[in-house]
Amino acid sequence: MLESNNPRRQSWVEIPEDSDFPIQNLPFGILSRNGGIKKVGVAIGNYAVDLSALYDFGYLDPHEFSHDHFQNDYLNDLLSLGKEKVRALRERISFLLSTDSNELKNDTKLNQILFKASELDMHLPVKIGDYTDFYSSEDHARNVGKMFRDPENALLPNWKHIPVGYHGRSSSIIPSGVAIHRPKGQTIPKDSDQPIFGPSKLLDFELEMAFITYPGKELGDSISTSEAEDYIFGMVIMNDWSARDIQKWEYVPLGPFLAKNFASSISTWIVTMDALEPFQTSGPVQDPEVLSYLKYEGNHHYDIHLDVMIKPENAEPTIVSQSNYKHMYWNMAQQLAHHTVNGCNIHGGDMMASGTISGPTPDSFGSMLEISWQGTKSITLSDGTERKFIQDKDTVIMKGYCHNEDVRIGFGELSTKVLPSK
Ligand code: CA
After folding, report:
1. CA 256 to CA 243: how far, in whole Å?
2. What is this structure's pTM?
Protein backbone atom coordinates (compact mmCIF):
# COMPACT_ATOMS: atom_id res chain seq x y z
CA MET A 1 0.00 0.00 0.00
CA LEU A 2 1.19 3.51 -0.77
CA GLU A 3 1.76 5.45 2.45
CA SER A 4 -0.45 8.21 0.99
CA ASN A 5 -3.33 5.71 1.00
CA ASN A 6 -2.87 4.67 4.60
CA PRO A 7 -6.33 5.16 6.13
CA ARG A 8 -4.75 6.02 9.48
CA ARG A 9 -2.75 8.92 8.06
CA GLN A 10 -4.15 12.24 9.27
CA SER A 11 -3.52 15.80 8.20
CA TRP A 12 -2.85 18.84 10.33
CA VAL A 13 -5.16 20.68 7.92
CA GLU A 14 -8.69 20.63 9.33
CA ILE A 15 -10.86 18.50 7.07
CA PRO A 16 -14.68 18.35 7.30
CA GLU A 17 -15.94 14.81 7.83
CA ASP A 18 -17.87 14.65 4.55
CA SER A 19 -15.06 16.26 2.50
CA ASP A 20 -14.22 14.82 -0.93
CA PHE A 21 -10.60 15.74 -0.29
CA PRO A 22 -9.10 14.03 2.78
CA ILE A 23 -5.33 13.47 2.85
CA GLN A 24 -5.89 10.07 1.17
CA ASN A 25 -7.11 11.84 -2.02
CA LEU A 26 -4.84 14.79 -2.98
CA PRO A 27 -6.20 15.37 -6.51
CA PHE A 28 -4.38 17.66 -8.96
CA GLY A 29 -5.80 20.70 -10.73
CA ILE A 30 -4.96 24.09 -12.19
CA LEU A 31 -5.80 27.10 -10.05
CA SER A 32 -5.38 30.87 -9.98
CA ARG A 33 -6.04 33.65 -7.48
CA ASN A 34 -7.52 37.07 -8.26
CA GLY A 35 -7.17 36.54 -12.01
CA GLY A 36 -3.44 35.87 -11.63
CA ILE A 37 -1.02 33.30 -13.04
CA LYS A 38 -2.20 29.71 -13.37
CA LYS A 39 -0.49 27.13 -11.17
CA VAL A 40 -0.65 23.45 -10.38
CA GLY A 41 -2.56 22.81 -7.17
CA VAL A 42 -3.52 19.91 -4.95
CA ALA A 43 -6.78 19.92 -2.98
CA ILE A 44 -7.00 19.10 0.72
CA GLY A 45 -10.21 19.65 2.69
CA ASN A 46 -11.49 23.16 1.97
CA TYR A 47 -7.99 24.27 0.93
CA ALA A 48 -5.55 23.84 -1.94
CA VAL A 49 -1.76 23.75 -1.99
CA ASP A 50 -0.04 25.96 -4.58
CA LEU A 51 2.70 23.62 -5.82
CA SER A 52 4.69 26.39 -7.47
CA ALA A 53 5.03 28.08 -4.07
CA LEU A 54 5.80 24.73 -2.45
CA TYR A 55 8.57 24.27 -5.02
CA ASP A 56 9.90 27.84 -4.70
CA PHE A 57 10.18 27.51 -0.92
CA GLY A 58 12.32 24.41 -1.29
CA TYR A 59 9.94 21.60 -0.41
CA LEU A 60 10.23 19.69 -3.70
CA ASP A 61 13.33 18.12 -5.24
CA PRO A 62 14.90 20.52 -7.81
CA HIS A 63 16.66 17.56 -9.48
CA GLU A 64 13.28 15.99 -10.29
CA PHE A 65 11.18 19.07 -10.97
CA SER A 66 11.48 22.65 -12.17
CA HIS A 67 9.47 25.78 -11.36
CA ASP A 68 7.88 25.58 -14.82
CA HIS A 69 6.28 22.23 -14.03
CA PHE A 70 4.17 23.97 -11.40
CA GLN A 71 3.69 27.50 -12.72
CA ASN A 72 1.86 26.32 -15.77
CA ASP A 73 -1.49 26.72 -17.53
CA TYR A 74 -1.89 22.93 -17.66
CA LEU A 75 -0.73 19.69 -16.04
CA ASN A 76 0.69 18.27 -19.30
CA ASP A 77 4.34 19.16 -18.56
CA LEU A 78 4.08 17.45 -15.18
CA LEU A 79 2.43 14.40 -16.80
CA SER A 80 5.32 14.20 -19.29
CA LEU A 81 7.50 13.09 -16.34
CA GLY A 82 5.53 9.84 -16.15
CA LYS A 83 3.84 7.82 -13.46
CA GLU A 84 6.73 7.15 -11.06
CA LYS A 85 7.72 10.81 -10.63
CA VAL A 86 4.15 12.02 -10.26
CA ARG A 87 3.51 9.26 -7.74
CA ALA A 88 6.60 10.31 -5.76
CA LEU A 89 5.41 13.92 -5.87
CA ARG A 90 2.02 12.99 -4.42
CA GLU A 91 3.71 10.90 -1.73
CA ARG A 92 5.89 13.88 -0.80
CA ILE A 93 2.89 16.23 -0.59
CA SER A 94 1.01 13.68 1.51
CA PHE A 95 3.92 13.53 3.97
CA LEU A 96 4.20 17.33 4.20
CA LEU A 97 0.47 17.64 4.92
CA SER A 98 0.42 14.78 7.42
CA THR A 99 0.76 14.85 11.18
CA ASP A 100 4.06 12.94 10.65
CA SER A 101 5.66 16.25 9.67
CA ASN A 102 5.35 19.78 11.07
CA GLU A 103 7.84 21.47 8.74
CA LEU A 104 5.20 22.95 6.44
CA LYS A 105 2.64 23.39 9.19
CA ASN A 106 5.02 25.63 11.16
CA ASP A 107 6.40 27.52 8.17
CA THR A 108 5.78 31.27 8.54
CA LYS A 109 5.23 31.39 4.76
CA LEU A 110 2.36 28.86 4.92
CA ASN A 111 -0.12 31.59 3.98
CA GLN A 112 1.72 31.86 0.63
CA ILE A 113 1.41 28.11 -0.02
CA LEU A 114 -1.98 26.98 1.32
CA PHE A 115 -5.13 28.82 0.21
CA LYS A 116 -8.82 28.55 0.92
CA ALA A 117 -10.50 26.85 -2.05
CA SER A 118 -13.22 29.51 -1.95
CA GLU A 119 -10.57 32.13 -2.88
CA LEU A 120 -9.41 30.20 -5.94
CA ASP A 121 -10.54 29.92 -9.53
CA MET A 122 -10.27 26.47 -11.05
CA HIS A 123 -9.46 25.90 -14.71
CA LEU A 124 -9.32 23.13 -17.29
CA PRO A 125 -6.62 20.89 -15.76
CA VAL A 126 -5.06 19.53 -18.95
CA LYS A 127 -4.60 20.74 -22.51
CA ILE A 128 -6.52 17.89 -24.02
CA GLY A 129 -4.95 16.64 -27.22
CA ASP A 130 -7.32 13.93 -28.32
CA TYR A 131 -10.66 12.99 -26.85
CA THR A 132 -12.12 9.51 -27.30
CA ASP A 133 -15.59 8.51 -26.13
CA PHE A 134 -16.34 4.86 -25.45
CA TYR A 135 -19.75 3.20 -25.13
CA SER A 136 -18.94 0.73 -22.39
CA SER A 137 -22.00 0.49 -20.14
CA GLU A 138 -24.06 -2.56 -21.04
CA ASP A 139 -27.23 -1.21 -19.42
CA HIS A 140 -26.93 2.03 -21.42
CA ALA A 141 -26.22 0.22 -24.70
CA ARG A 142 -29.16 -2.11 -24.08
CA ASN A 143 -31.51 0.77 -23.26
CA VAL A 144 -30.55 2.63 -26.44
CA GLY A 145 -30.84 -0.56 -28.48
CA LYS A 146 -34.30 -1.26 -27.06
CA MET A 147 -35.49 2.27 -27.87
CA PHE A 148 -34.05 2.69 -31.35
CA ARG A 149 -33.63 -0.83 -32.70
CA ASP A 150 -34.91 -4.21 -31.61
CA PRO A 151 -35.83 -4.90 -27.94
CA GLU A 152 -35.07 -8.59 -28.58
CA ASN A 153 -31.61 -7.85 -30.00
CA ALA A 154 -30.74 -4.67 -28.15
CA LEU A 155 -26.97 -5.12 -28.36
CA LEU A 156 -25.33 -5.06 -31.79
CA PRO A 157 -23.30 -8.20 -32.63
CA ASN A 158 -19.92 -6.48 -32.04
CA TRP A 159 -20.74 -4.99 -28.64
CA LYS A 160 -19.48 -7.79 -26.38
CA HIS A 161 -16.34 -8.26 -28.50
CA ILE A 162 -15.18 -4.65 -28.92
CA PRO A 163 -15.06 -1.73 -26.50
CA VAL A 164 -16.93 0.42 -29.04
CA GLY A 165 -15.78 4.03 -29.23
CA TYR A 166 -15.41 7.06 -31.48
CA HIS A 167 -13.14 10.07 -31.70
CA GLY A 168 -14.70 13.16 -30.16
CA ARG A 169 -13.67 16.80 -30.12
CA SER A 170 -11.39 18.32 -27.47
CA SER A 171 -11.72 22.06 -28.23
CA SER A 172 -15.16 22.25 -26.59
CA ILE A 173 -14.29 20.37 -23.39
CA ILE A 174 -14.94 22.87 -20.59
CA PRO A 175 -14.44 22.89 -16.82
CA SER A 176 -17.17 22.92 -14.20
CA GLY A 177 -18.79 26.33 -13.80
CA VAL A 178 -18.67 27.34 -17.48
CA ALA A 179 -22.22 27.73 -18.81
CA ILE A 180 -23.23 26.39 -22.21
CA HIS A 181 -25.69 27.73 -24.75
CA ARG A 182 -28.37 25.46 -26.12
CA PRO A 183 -27.04 24.23 -29.47
CA LYS A 184 -28.79 24.94 -32.76
CA GLY A 185 -28.86 22.59 -35.69
CA GLN A 186 -30.82 20.56 -38.19
CA THR A 187 -33.59 18.32 -36.99
CA ILE A 188 -36.26 16.36 -38.80
CA PRO A 189 -39.82 17.02 -37.60
CA LYS A 190 -42.02 14.02 -36.99
CA ASP A 191 -43.86 12.86 -40.13
CA SER A 192 -41.74 15.09 -42.38
CA ASP A 193 -38.93 14.42 -44.84
CA GLN A 194 -37.68 18.02 -44.79
CA PRO A 195 -35.30 19.16 -42.05
CA ILE A 196 -35.70 22.42 -40.14
CA PHE A 197 -33.08 24.59 -38.41
CA GLY A 198 -33.32 25.89 -34.85
CA PRO A 199 -32.48 25.33 -31.18
CA SER A 200 -32.34 21.69 -30.08
CA LYS A 201 -35.51 20.69 -28.25
CA LEU A 202 -34.01 17.52 -26.76
CA LEU A 203 -30.90 18.67 -24.89
CA ASP A 204 -29.55 15.93 -22.65
CA PHE A 205 -26.72 15.15 -20.25
CA GLU A 206 -24.64 11.98 -20.32
CA LEU A 207 -23.24 10.84 -16.96
CA GLU A 208 -19.69 9.67 -17.66
CA MET A 209 -16.25 9.36 -16.10
CA ALA A 210 -13.15 10.19 -18.14
CA PHE A 211 -9.52 9.19 -17.66
CA ILE A 212 -6.43 11.26 -18.51
CA THR A 213 -3.31 9.63 -19.90
CA TYR A 214 0.41 9.86 -19.39
CA PRO A 215 2.50 9.85 -22.61
CA GLY A 216 2.12 6.45 -24.30
CA LYS A 217 4.32 4.50 -26.67
CA GLU A 218 5.63 5.12 -30.18
CA LEU A 219 3.24 5.08 -33.13
CA GLY A 220 2.90 1.43 -34.12
CA ASP A 221 3.29 0.04 -30.58
CA SER A 222 0.47 -1.20 -28.36
CA ILE A 223 -0.31 -0.99 -24.64
CA SER A 224 -1.47 -4.25 -23.06
CA THR A 225 -4.18 -4.54 -20.43
CA SER A 226 -1.48 -5.33 -17.84
CA GLU A 227 0.49 -2.20 -18.79
CA ALA A 228 -2.52 0.09 -19.16
CA GLU A 229 -2.64 1.57 -15.67
CA ASP A 230 0.99 2.73 -15.96
CA TYR A 231 -0.30 5.09 -18.65
CA ILE A 232 -3.34 6.45 -16.80
CA PHE A 233 -2.89 9.47 -14.53
CA GLY A 234 -6.36 9.88 -13.06
CA MET A 235 -10.06 10.47 -13.56
CA VAL A 236 -12.68 13.21 -13.65
CA ILE A 237 -16.48 13.26 -13.86
CA MET A 238 -17.73 14.15 -17.34
CA ASN A 239 -21.06 15.42 -18.60
CA ASP A 240 -20.94 14.62 -22.31
CA TRP A 241 -23.74 16.92 -23.50
CA SER A 242 -25.96 15.62 -26.28
CA ALA A 243 -28.65 17.08 -28.55
CA ARG A 244 -30.81 14.03 -29.17
CA ASP A 245 -32.93 15.52 -31.96
CA ILE A 246 -29.87 16.71 -33.90
CA GLN A 247 -28.20 13.34 -33.33
CA LYS A 248 -31.16 11.39 -34.68
CA TRP A 249 -31.03 13.14 -38.07
CA GLU A 250 -27.27 13.45 -38.56
CA TYR A 251 -25.72 10.26 -37.23
CA VAL A 252 -26.20 7.99 -40.25
CA PRO A 253 -23.82 6.63 -41.52
CA LEU A 254 -20.73 8.05 -39.79
CA GLY A 255 -21.97 8.54 -36.23
CA PRO A 256 -22.51 11.56 -33.99
CA PHE A 257 -21.14 14.95 -35.04
CA LEU A 258 -22.74 18.32 -34.17
CA ALA A 259 -25.08 16.68 -31.66
CA LYS A 260 -22.04 15.95 -29.51
CA ASN A 261 -19.25 18.42 -30.22
CA PHE A 262 -20.73 21.65 -28.83
CA ALA A 263 -19.68 20.90 -25.24
CA SER A 264 -18.45 18.27 -22.80
CA SER A 265 -18.05 19.41 -19.18
CA ILE A 266 -15.52 17.95 -16.72
CA SER A 267 -14.88 18.29 -13.00
CA THR A 268 -11.72 20.29 -12.28
CA TRP A 269 -9.79 18.09 -9.81
CA ILE A 270 -8.17 14.99 -11.32
CA VAL A 271 -8.29 12.15 -8.80
CA THR A 272 -5.21 9.98 -9.34
CA MET A 273 -5.34 6.26 -10.02
CA ASP A 274 -3.12 5.93 -6.94
CA ALA A 275 -5.85 7.48 -4.75
CA LEU A 276 -8.49 5.28 -6.40
CA GLU A 277 -6.52 2.06 -5.91
CA PRO A 278 -8.29 1.06 -2.64
CA PHE A 279 -11.62 1.22 -4.49
CA GLN A 280 -10.80 -1.29 -7.22
CA THR A 281 -13.42 -3.99 -7.63
CA SER A 282 -14.13 -6.91 -9.89
CA GLY A 283 -16.03 -6.44 -13.13
CA PRO A 284 -18.78 -8.51 -14.71
CA VAL A 285 -18.00 -11.94 -16.10
CA GLN A 286 -17.51 -11.31 -19.79
CA ASP A 287 -19.47 -13.78 -21.85
CA PRO A 288 -18.72 -14.54 -24.65
CA GLU A 289 -15.03 -14.77 -23.89
CA VAL A 290 -13.10 -11.82 -25.28
CA LEU A 291 -10.10 -12.01 -27.62
CA SER A 292 -6.80 -12.53 -25.83
CA TYR A 293 -5.59 -8.91 -26.17
CA LEU A 294 -8.68 -7.82 -24.17
CA LYS A 295 -8.25 -10.34 -21.36
CA TYR A 296 -7.01 -8.99 -18.06
CA GLU A 297 -5.93 -10.10 -14.61
CA GLY A 298 -6.82 -8.51 -11.31
CA ASN A 299 -9.44 -5.87 -10.58
CA HIS A 300 -9.65 -2.96 -13.01
CA HIS A 301 -13.16 -1.74 -12.26
CA TYR A 302 -13.73 0.98 -9.67
CA ASP A 303 -16.53 1.41 -7.16
CA ILE A 304 -17.47 5.09 -7.63
CA HIS A 305 -20.92 6.33 -6.60
CA LEU A 306 -22.33 8.87 -9.02
CA ASP A 307 -25.21 11.31 -8.52
CA VAL A 308 -26.90 13.54 -11.09
CA MET A 309 -29.05 16.50 -10.05
CA ILE A 310 -31.10 19.02 -12.00
CA LYS A 311 -31.45 22.47 -10.44
CA PRO A 312 -34.04 24.83 -11.95
CA GLU A 313 -33.00 28.49 -11.75
CA ASN A 314 -34.66 29.42 -8.45
CA ALA A 315 -35.12 26.02 -6.82
CA GLU A 316 -33.21 23.36 -4.95
CA PRO A 317 -31.53 20.56 -6.93
CA THR A 318 -33.36 17.26 -7.34
CA ILE A 319 -31.47 13.96 -7.68
CA VAL A 320 -32.53 12.36 -10.96
CA SER A 321 -30.03 9.50 -11.15
CA GLN A 322 -27.76 7.52 -8.82
CA SER A 323 -25.39 5.27 -10.70
CA ASN A 324 -21.97 3.69 -10.17
CA TYR A 325 -18.87 3.41 -12.35
CA LYS A 326 -18.54 -0.25 -11.35
CA HIS A 327 -21.45 -1.02 -13.70
CA MET A 328 -19.12 -0.71 -16.72
CA TYR A 329 -18.79 -3.82 -18.89
CA TRP A 330 -15.42 -2.77 -20.34
CA ASN A 331 -12.80 -1.35 -17.98
CA MET A 332 -10.15 1.31 -18.64
CA ALA A 333 -7.37 -1.24 -19.13
CA GLN A 334 -9.40 -2.92 -21.88
CA GLN A 335 -10.33 0.42 -23.44
CA LEU A 336 -6.70 1.57 -23.61
CA ALA A 337 -5.50 -1.84 -24.87
CA HIS A 338 -8.14 -1.76 -27.58
CA HIS A 339 -7.41 1.87 -28.48
CA THR A 340 -3.72 1.10 -29.10
CA VAL A 341 -3.92 -2.47 -30.43
CA ASN A 342 -3.72 -1.17 -34.02
CA GLY A 343 -0.64 0.94 -33.18
CA CYS A 344 -2.52 4.17 -32.49
CA ASN A 345 -0.35 6.32 -30.21
CA ILE A 346 -1.60 8.31 -27.23
CA HIS A 347 -0.15 11.49 -25.76
CA GLY A 348 0.03 12.83 -22.24
CA GLY A 349 -3.20 14.70 -21.54
CA ASP A 350 -5.42 12.71 -23.86
CA MET A 351 -8.86 12.12 -22.44
CA MET A 352 -10.95 8.98 -22.77
CA ALA A 353 -14.53 8.86 -21.57
CA SER A 354 -16.49 5.83 -20.45
CA GLY A 355 -19.69 6.45 -22.33
CA THR A 356 -22.94 7.00 -20.45
CA ILE A 357 -22.90 5.09 -17.17
CA SER A 358 -26.30 3.54 -16.57
CA GLY A 359 -27.09 1.03 -13.86
CA PRO A 360 -29.67 -1.75 -14.11
CA THR A 361 -32.63 0.16 -12.64
CA PRO A 362 -34.46 3.28 -13.93
CA ASP A 363 -33.24 5.38 -10.98
CA SER A 364 -29.67 4.65 -12.08
CA PHE A 365 -29.98 5.57 -15.76
CA GLY A 366 -27.31 8.05 -16.91
CA SER A 367 -29.23 10.23 -19.38
CA MET A 368 -32.64 11.88 -19.71
CA LEU A 369 -33.09 9.88 -22.92
CA GLU A 370 -33.28 6.77 -20.75
CA ILE A 371 -34.89 8.35 -17.64
CA SER A 372 -37.74 9.76 -19.76
CA TRP A 373 -37.61 6.67 -22.01
CA GLN A 374 -37.36 8.73 -25.19
CA GLY A 375 -39.68 11.41 -23.82
CA THR A 376 -42.55 9.08 -22.97
CA LYS A 377 -42.48 9.91 -19.25
CA SER A 378 -41.43 12.85 -17.15
CA ILE A 379 -39.84 13.40 -13.76
CA THR A 380 -40.94 16.01 -11.22
CA LEU A 381 -38.37 18.41 -9.75
CA SER A 382 -38.34 20.09 -6.31
CA ASP A 383 -40.25 23.14 -7.57
CA GLY A 384 -43.05 20.99 -9.02
CA THR A 385 -42.00 21.48 -12.65
CA GLU A 386 -41.54 18.46 -14.90
CA ARG A 387 -38.66 17.43 -17.16
CA LYS A 388 -38.22 15.03 -20.02
CA PHE A 389 -35.05 16.75 -21.21
CA ILE A 390 -33.00 19.76 -20.01
CA GLN A 391 -34.56 23.24 -20.14
CA ASP A 392 -32.91 26.66 -20.46
CA LYS A 393 -31.58 28.01 -17.13
CA ASP A 394 -31.40 24.50 -15.64
CA THR A 395 -28.12 23.62 -13.97
CA VAL A 396 -27.01 19.99 -14.22
CA ILE A 397 -24.85 18.91 -11.28
CA MET A 398 -22.87 15.68 -11.07
CA LYS A 399 -21.00 14.33 -8.06
CA GLY A 400 -18.88 11.24 -7.55
CA TYR A 401 -17.29 9.63 -4.53
CA CYS A 402 -15.83 6.35 -3.28
CA HIS A 403 -15.95 5.07 0.26
CA ASN A 404 -15.03 2.07 2.35
CA GLU A 405 -15.15 1.57 6.10
CA ASP A 406 -12.07 3.78 6.57
CA VAL A 407 -11.96 6.48 3.92
CA ARG A 408 -14.20 8.55 1.66
CA ILE A 409 -12.69 10.34 -1.34
CA GLY A 410 -14.54 12.27 -4.02
CA PHE A 411 -14.29 14.26 -7.21
CA GLY A 412 -15.86 17.54 -6.12
CA GLU A 413 -18.79 18.89 -8.08
CA LEU A 414 -19.36 19.21 -11.82
CA SER A 415 -21.90 21.97 -12.39
CA THR A 416 -23.03 23.39 -15.73
CA LYS A 417 -25.82 25.86 -16.42
CA VAL A 418 -27.70 25.80 -19.71
CA LEU A 419 -28.38 29.22 -21.25
CA PRO A 420 -30.75 29.89 -24.17
CA SER A 421 -29.42 29.57 -27.71
CA LYS A 422 -27.25 32.43 -28.94
CA1 CA B 1 -20.79 10.10 -24.60
Report:
1. 10
2. 0.98
